[in-house]
Design a protein that fits this description.
By secondary structure, the chain is mainly β. The chain has 8 helices and 43 strands. The chain has an 18-stranded antiparallel β-sheet that branches. The chain has a 5-stranded mixed β-sheet with strand order 10-15-16-13-14. A 4-stranded antiparallel β-sheet has the order 3-2-5-6, with no helix packed on it. A hairpin with a 6-residue loop joins strand 19 and strand 20 (339-349). The longest helix has 19 residues, at 7-25. Mean pLDDT is 86; it is low at 1-24.
């Protein structure tokens, strides 16, 4: 009875005892993490309890605070670019941490949907930092890495603001795209060129780029599955920092350019001598010679001039790091009338919330460019046009330029070459392009399980362009039709939604990294074009309205396992679906696996490191560009205006069926890769050696087909195999390393062999191959061929015979 009388007292006592027990089982620790050299707070450093799921991320002042479970005696502190620390907590509740720079920032490389230490990478991955970019007056991002990476061939276009052809370990396709997938701040962009633009990458000012990371082998690229057959290039732009309120940077350059040499052509006197020696005095050719001495190559080329400016401000406002930049580029080409004008803007906001467990990254890039494209046909004309003729003829009704005319009526001779300078100055090809890329990336580390994080990425890549090509009726090439006036527009849109979960758990010297996610991407295009004469009463190119779209959806996952920090295993799996294929063949499965062994790790002395890498992976290809967005569908095509059918006095448009292959499916590429990474003499001599074999099967190929087997002469289908095999060597040295001065020398070399191994469904030794490569001049003939046993696009020409 006494117990029940004092029941409230006993209940209160039990609660107090439990509370005391709880208080003794956990305690609150806090502190500040700073840079030991500068004393500045480190924002976003990870502080974790060793052996328990508890921890925190430092705030904008470098402070942290969390509950430490019973039995925990140590905390682990890590921060990108600094050496990790493991500290005893002791009896106190305040643990301040001073961190020293350790692993350099460049030793952490970006991979698909995450990052990894360079020393822990199992695939063929190479990052180039901004400090290592090519220097000079560069206007396109691709120029930054020309010659920097083994196995990556970058061939810049000579146009002002021009793009580049990028090939990673050769091309893996014949009729599909051979361009690598480019991912800009997490946004996978399309390979299709924007109408009227010189390159899709002009939306990024080179001054805004922080790193280029290239994923070369399939064990590294397979996480991107359907679009990674030709490698992946990850571009990361610069961000702000809370270490300062504001910092301002201004970069500018002025450039001049000239042609290095010219084609060795006959001058006027040499040409006259040739004609007089070859023909007798009464031959009509003698009367066609002029009295001028014209160097036509000097007439079409000029000294190119350009200037480039970039203004950037970065820092932090409250808890929000920011970086904003504005760029302006104005360049002319070495060919007259070639002009490029660009205005770019970029914004990055990267705040952290909830003690930095919630990271937000907002990127926006905008570009407005104006272009005038030179008529490249003038280059060839300048080589073979008669040097005895003048540039101008004041009596000529054709713009005042010398023009070959018919003797009967004085109209331009359509078989004769056009005046090279007239080809440039009477051909007005202009465009205006606006492109906008933005994405919002949210990364959340769960409070109840700090090892688990969720990442959501929403992006939009949109462009609008319009252009015109105008040639007056006084231009000899446009005289017959009364001039040429073409108008075109394009709207392009690329929407992206990606979400993934990432779980990372360290167990002693081993670590498990799991990632799984979903990706959705929608591409939409809408083109319009029409060409008429100047009066507008004659259609020269029929009106085209061409809206089209396609979708990509994917599920993907990856596991990285580090065992005792010496043995590394990576496995990925991606399932892709493309709306380009019928439902039976819509989805493809692309796996990869890689293994790495740190045979020698951080050994002092002359031999510091040696790592063996082995990998295998499969990737897919569905990108056949603008040739056909729906190759599996049975469709009808409306006739052009000039191909209407007449019934009585009425003309009717007709519909004709298009060819198609209902069973078209994924092109697949399998890659085998082996590599050795090494370091000597305190890593002042380091590099890598790699060998690879890449085999592509079920090539997406645009091939001729027997008459009567389909509704067209050529069709997209799966036929043929292709292989690339090669060796890559990279070597970097640091001959001089001092506090105030260092000298680094690097080089690389690549050997790649491309060969077609099959082109027909059944062996046919008599099958020569598929003709490709149009001859310049629009004659309709081909000069290259895809043929078994030879590289793709091999030249097939007659042997030239001399001195018969």
């Amino acid at each position: 009875m006494k117990y029940f009388k004092h029941k409230p007292f006993f209940a209160l006592l039990v609660v107090m005892l439990l509370g005391s027990s709880f208080a003794f089982s956990q305690r609150q620790i806090s502190g500040t993490v700073v840079d030991i050299e500068t004393g500045e707070p480190l924002i976003g450093a990870s502080v974790r309890a060793v052996g328990a799921n508890a921890g925190a991320i430092t705030d904008v002042e470098g402070k942290y605070s969390f509950q430490v479970p019973e039995g925990v005696t140590q905390i682990e502190v890590s921060y990108t670019g600094f050496g990790g620390l493991t500290l005893d907590i002791g009896a106190g509740n305040v643990v301040d941490v001073r961190m020293a720079p350790g692993i350099a920032l460049e030793e952490t490389v970006i991979i698909g949907y995450g990052t990894v230490k360079k020393e822990d990478a199992t695939g063929s991955i190479l990052a180039v930092q901004s400090k290592d970019f090519n220097k000079g007056a560069l206007s396109s991002p691709q120029e930054l890495i020309v010659g920097k990476i083994a196995g990556v061939a970058v061939t810049p276009n000579a146009d002002p603001g021009g793009g580049a052809t990028i090939r990673i370990r050769g091309g893996s396709s014949l009729s599909a795209s051979n361009d690598p997938l480019i991912v800009i701040d997490g946004v996978p962009v399309g390979n299709e060129t924007v109408s009227g633009a010189r390159t899709g990458l002009n939306v990024i000012n080179p001054n805004d780029i922080e790193t280029f990371t290239v994923l070369k082998d399939a064990s590294a690229t397979a996480i991107y599955g359907s679009r990674a057959s030709n490698g992946v290039i990850l571009i990361t732009t610069k961000k702000g920092s809370l270490k300062r309120k504001i910092g301002v940077e201004y970069n500018a350059n002025v450039s001049f350019g000239q042609r290095i040499k010219e084609v060795d052509a006959l001058n006027a006197d040499e040409f006259r001598t040739l004609i007089r020696d070859y023909y007798d005095d009464n031959h009509p050719a003698q009367t066609l010679l002029g009295n001028a001495n014209t160097d036509w190559q000097s007439q079409v080329y000029q000294t190119a001039f350009g200037h480039d400016h970039n203004l950037a401000a970065s820092g932090g406002v409250g808890q929000i790091p920011y970086r904003v930049s504005l760029g302006y580029t104005d360049r002319s080409g070495v060919i007259k009338t070639d002009e490029f004008n660009r205005l770019t803007g970029a914004l990055n906001l990267s705040p952290g919330f909830l003690n930095n467990t919630l990271q937000v990254n907002l990127n926006a890039k905008v570009m407005k460019s104006k272009n005038r494209f030179a008529n490249r046909g003038a280059i060839g004309s300048a080589i073979f046009f008669d040097p005895t003729q003048p540039v101008y003829d004041q009596n000529s009704p054709y713009g005042g330029y010398f023009t070959y005319v018919n003797a009967v009526d004085g109209t331009p001779n359509p078989l004769a070459s056009a005046n090279p300078l007239a080809q440039l100055e009477l051909h007005d090809d202009k465009s205006d392009v606006t492109q906008f890329i933005t994405n919002l990336q949210v990364d959340y580390r769960f409070w109840f399980l700090p090892d688990l994080r969720a990442n959501l990425n929403i992006a939009l890549d949109k462009s609008d362009s319009e252009g015109s090509i105008f040639e007056p009726a006084t231009y000899s090439r446009a005289f017959v039709n009364g001039g040429y006036d073409k108008k075109y527009t394009q709207e392009k849109e690329n929407k992206v939604l990606e979400f993934y979960l990432n779980y990372v758990k360290s167990i002693g010297n081993s670590k498990l990294d799991l990632m799984a996610g979903y990706s959705w991407q929608h591409f939409f295009f809408d083109n319009y074009s029409v060409a008429k004469n100047i009066a507008g009463d004659k259609i020269l190119e029929a009106e085209i309205l061409n809206p089209r779209e396609y979708f990509l959806v994917s599920l993907f996952g990856r596991v990285n396992l580090s065992i005792t920090d010496r043995f590394l295993l990576t496995g990925t799996l991606r399932r892709d679906g493309s709306s380009r294929f019928a439902s039976d063949n819509r989805f493809g499965l692309f796996p990869s696996a890689a293994f790495a062994w740190k045979i020698v790790k951080d050994r002092p002395g002359s031999f510091n490191s040696l790592k063996l890498r082995l990998g295998y992976g499969e990737t897919g290809q569905q990108d056949i560009g603008d040739k056909d967005y729906y190759p599996y569908l049975a469709r009808y095509q409306k006739s052009t205006e000039s191909a209407q059918y007449q019934l009585g006095n009425q003309y009717y448009y007709t519909l004709r069926p298009n060819g198609y292959d209902a069973k078209i499916k994924w092109e697949q590429t399998a890659t085998y890769n082996a590599g050795l990474d090494f370091g000597f003499f305190d890593n002042r001599l380091n590099g890598s050696a790699e060998v690879y074999l890449r085999k592509t099967s079920d090539l997406l190929n645009f091939i001729p087909i027997p008459a009567g087997t389909n509704l067209t002469n050529f069709i997209f289908t799966n036929v043929g195999d292709l292989e690339n095999k090669g060796v890559e060597l990279s070597l970097n040295t640091l001959p001089i390393k001092r506090p105030n001065f260092s000298w680094e020398v690097g080089g690389n070399v690549t050997f790649n062999k491309n060969k077609i191994t099959r082109l027909t469904a059944t062996d046919d030794p008599n099958y020569q191959g598929v003709a490709t490569g149009d001859i310049a001049g629009g004659v309709g003939n081909k000069i290259q061929i895809h043929s078994v046993g030879y590289p793709a696009n091999s030249f097939l020409v007659y042997e030239q015979v001399y001195d018969l």
